[in-house]
Predict the structure of Exodeoxyribonuclease III.
Amino acid sequence: MSTFTVATVNVNGIRAAAKERSEDNRGILPWLEKTSADVVLMQEVRADEKQTQLALAPALDAGWHLAQAPAAAKGRAGVGILSRSELKDVTVGFGHGDKGIEIPEAREFDQSGRYIEATVASGIEGLGDITVASLYLPSGSANTTKQDEKYRFMDAFAPFMHDRAEQGIETIIGGDWNICHRRADLKNWKTNRTKSGYLPDERAFLDHLLGVWPDAQTQVGDAEDAGRNGNPGGSAGEFYGAVDYVPGQRAAERLAAGAAENPQWFDVQRRLDPDSMDVFSWWTYRGQAFDINAGWRIDLQVATTGLQQRARKAWVDKALAYELRWSDHSPVIVEYSS
């Protein structure tokens, strides 16, 4: 049985990730030597192509192929793809109209290091070439213009994903989605209801793409979400935390459509493990978050139907100890097979 394994990880700066911190923590390079992944989708690379090639030189010399989309703003964002086999049809940005509809609102993000995709041979019988994409969705920050940027990105990205699924192009979008979909996706959800990453409109955005499974109905605005005094983050459609953002037609269409009843995209890890409550991928460096597992599950592999049906197992490659981390995120890995 042939397998195809994909990892996604926010590297929190590839140059920092590649450094040796100690004899026991030699960074991402030894991890690349040992990982079973055929493709590694990287976010927050925060380096230009020359700097990335230098940081990853041993891995590239060993046969890894690299495609990258740096941000125009130096030292910020940036996404990349590492693959053991050749990457073809590399595209930076989304919604250009070459493989589907053109989305004018997406042009804002072409040079921001937020999205890159490529075609790669899966090696899985009956599947053939697939598209793999690395996404770094804006992190946002409530009550700042960063939250405006996040809402604008959501407006542009939702129609792109709908169109991509309709085109029948089997795709994995792995990345730092910067949104916790459900209460089980973060340790302290009650105290984060007004924080970017768990705002009602962000969660409703994932409802719209992924549906509400394994729940019978959305958690956004349900009795537990609201609590005794109501959700301090408001409700979907209020766009809590925005400064100058004004929802337009794209947002109105998404709100009117609501949660997907028959989704064409799937949160692969959640589909394989619907009941987990403590499987996270990011922990702040502050305090003892990592040690007490007070984390957030914001790093996802979201796949189309054909790939979801071939997903066999998923796991977070969490460091054994705080001092062994080379990023504040851990790789999320999925094995697909025939």
